[in-house]
């Protein structure tokens, strides 16, 4: 796996989208795999741990939606000035993207899915589906 290819995919497929700020590829145990421009090492480490925890909470709250037997796929958090999206990106991997409030939510999700397919080919793992969606 060439880390430079992963970074290029994040920069090219995610950051070129209007309203996106940063992208981060992380492992299920909260370790940074790759990050886009604008994410320094300290931020990548902190956000990888935080997003891994939020994914776990999202998965754990599936019962509230009667979805405890369904795989977790995506979580979106809305703030006053923007969003954070994160979704399964293969076996034990997640892709997180931060955006401004002007971002097109549907376009961001679609771009993330396309980037995940490309990242999966680079990492040699199956994209999305039930991957990373441990119940």
- What kind of oligomer do you see? single chain
Q: Strand sequence of the main sheet, in spatial order?
A: 2-1-5-4-3
Instruction: Give the ordered list of helices and strands.
Output: HEEHEEEH
Percent of residues in helices comes to 25-40%
Can you summarize the main beta sheet?
5 strands, antiparallel
What is the radius of gyration computed over CA atoms, rounded to a whole number of angstroms?
14 Å
Provide an overview of this structure:
- The protein is globular, with a radius of gyration of 14 Å.
- Helix 1 packs antiparallel against helix 3.
- It is built from three helices and five strands, in the order H-E-E-H-E-E-E-H.
- It is 39% helix and 24% strand.
- Residues 130-135 have low confidence and may be disordered.
- It has a five-stranded antiparallel sheet, with helices on both faces.
- By secondary structure, the protein is of the alpha+beta class.
- The chain has helices at 3-15, 41-60, 105-123; strands at 20-27, 32-35, 74-79, 82-88, 93-100.
């Amino acid at each position: 796996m060439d880390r430079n290819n992963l970074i290029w995919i994040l920069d090219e497929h995610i950051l070129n989208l209007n309203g996106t700020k940063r992208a981060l590829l992380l492992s299920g145990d909260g370790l940074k795999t790759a990050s886009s421009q604008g994410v320094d090492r300290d931020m990548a480490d902190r956000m990888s741990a935080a997003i891994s925890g939020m994914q776990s909470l999202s998965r754990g709250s599936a019962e509230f939606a009667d979805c405890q037997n369904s795989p977790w796929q995506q979580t979106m958090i809305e703030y006053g000035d923007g969003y954070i999206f994160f979704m399964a990106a293969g076996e034990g991997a997640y892709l997180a993207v931060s955006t401004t409030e002007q971002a097109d939510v549907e376009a961001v999700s679609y771009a993330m899915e396309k980037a995940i397919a490309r990242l999966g080919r680079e990492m040699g793992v199956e994209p999305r589906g039930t991957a990373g969606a441990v119940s």
